[in-house]
Amino acid sequence: MSQLKSLIRVSKPAERLLKPLHVPHKLLMGPGPSNAPPRVLAALAMPLLGHLHPEFCEIMDDVKAGIQYAFQTCNPVTLAISGTGHAAMEAALCNAVEPNDVVVIAQNGIWGQRAADMALRNGANVKTIVKPPGEVFNLHEFAQALEVHKPKLMFVCHGESSSGSLQPLEGIGELCHRHGCLLLVDTVASLGGAPVFTDKMEIDIIYSGSQKVLGAPPGTAPISFSPRAMEKLKKRTTKVRSYYFDMNELSNYWACDGAEARRYHHTGPISSVYALREGLAGLAEEGLAECWDRHQRLAETLWQGLENMGLKLLIADKSVRLPTVTAVKVPTGVQWKQVVDYCMEEYKLEIAGGLGPTAGKIWRIGLMGYNATEHNIQLVLKALREGIDKSKL
After folding, report:
1. For the segment 221-261, what is each residue's pLDDT rounded down to a tens digit?
2. Strand 205-207 relative to strand 220-225: parallel, antiparallel, unpaired?
3. Is the dihedral of CA 153, 158, 164, 166 positive or negative?
4. For residues 306 and 298, is the Cβ–Cβ distance under 8 A?
5. Using CA atoms, how far apart are residues 65 and 57, in angstroms rounded to an integer?
6. C-alpha span between 293 and 185 (Å, rounded)
7. To bridge 355 with a disulfide, which of 159, 162, 192, 332 should be the other Cys (CB 3.0-4.6 Å)?
8. What is the Cα–Cα distance from 217 to 227, expressed in whole angstroms?
9. Structural contact between residues 253 and 265, judged by C-beta atoms closer than 8 angstroms
10. Partners of 224 in the beta sheet?
């Protein structure tokens, strides 16, 4: 060993790695992630299991049932992608899209832009219908796009967190199916905070993230494929471009395909799956309808408080405001970043600026899951009022 040491020169470790880890507590009232409840944090400290141990497979089954409940679906192919909401978007598109498929993207914020980018990378012939941030689409506009472009897939973002808009979903699925098109819906910012009924609304592919209303760390992403979507997948003439996201493989690992045994596909994020299980369990214990009601009621309290301060919300129509992310116009003469920095420096409180097309124009205030409380709303209003006053000096 001493001779080996004389032959090999190992570089020194970074000094920063020799210091204890310190993570400050912050109140995350931006568009996500949100703070995790104690039960989720406790789950993260539980002992690791093997990714195919029977006990872990039981937890995976709990997660599947929880996701089906949250999405309000009976789809057998319902599971959690090992990755963030972006990974679920990628998984949805790479499985549903073959080269030269026409895909229509309803784009009224950054998530439509991202979906269009991913669809293009998967060889799609992308067509967009576009609205300014804060506006939503109507059924006539969807019908027109379906008639003109004759797509195989339609993408819609339910909760557009870059602008705080909530896209009505009623009737879109039926319209798509009448034109031989699948409906793909992004609910990363809305799941648990606003009503969605996957089966009743005839949604074919739906996905979300773990770090918003569910209150788990980022890194697991609920997703569900309808039998109609799986039929298209089975009829592909080309392989899914990603092995990691191939639902043929993942549906077996998650025991969704009716096979006798699960095959090794990848090593699942064990602790993150525990955390997601507990986030879904918390949703089940509160009740989905009760959780929707809580978010709507508290969002209205926040909106009223902001308006009482003389602030204007980006979206005038309350019926299409996303309860989980509120977009507030930055007043003339106020530096948005100074206010954000004040909230963090004085209160360890995170609110965010705009994103993509709304950057520099709005603040975004999150009200999600464990953080959706009256106390937190009053703290946000206090910090925002002080930050605006200080910015004007």
Report:
1. 999 999 999 999 999 999 999 999 999 999 999 999 999 89
2. antiparallel
3. positive
4. no
5. 12
6. 22
7. 162
8. 30
9. yes
10. 78, 206
Please, how many CA atoms are within 13 Å of residue 306, restricted to the half-sphere of its CB? 25
pLDDT of residue 87: 98
Cα(67)–Cα(312) distance, integer angstroms: 36
Sign, CA dihedral 276-280-285-288, equals positive
- Residue 77, classed as helix, strand or coil, is strand
pLDDT of residue 357: 81
Torsion of CA 172, 166, 110, 206, to 10 degrees: -50
Residue-wise burial string across 11-28, b where 16 or more C-beta atoms lie within 10 A, e elsewhere: eeeeeeeeeeeeeeeebb
Alpha-helical (H) ranges within the chain are 2-7, 38-44, 54-71, 85-96, 110-121, 139-149, 172-178, 227-234, 247-253, 270-286, 288-308, 336-347, 374-392
What residues pair up with 362 in beta bridges, in sequence order? Answer: 329
Per-residue pLDDT of 189-214, as tens digits, reads: 999 999 999 999 999 999 999 999 99
Long-range contacts of 318-322 (CB under 8 A, 24+ apart): 319/166, 320/136, 320/165, 320/166, 320/167, 320/168, 321/164, 321/165, 321/166, 322/159, 322/160, 322/161, 322/164, 322/165, 322/166, 322/189, 322/190, 322/193, 322/194
Enter the pTM of the model: 0.96
HEC secondary structure over 297-359: HHHHHHHHHHHHCCCCECCCCHHHECCCEEEEECCCCCCHHHHHHHHHHHHCEECEECCHHHC
Contact in structure between 142 and 172 (CB atoms under 8 Å) = yes
Please tell me what DSSP assigns to residue 364.
E
Under DSSP, is residue 75 helix (H, G, I), strand (E, B) or coil? Answer: coil
* pLDDT, tens only, 60-100: 999 999 999 999 999 999 999 999 999 999 999 999 999 99
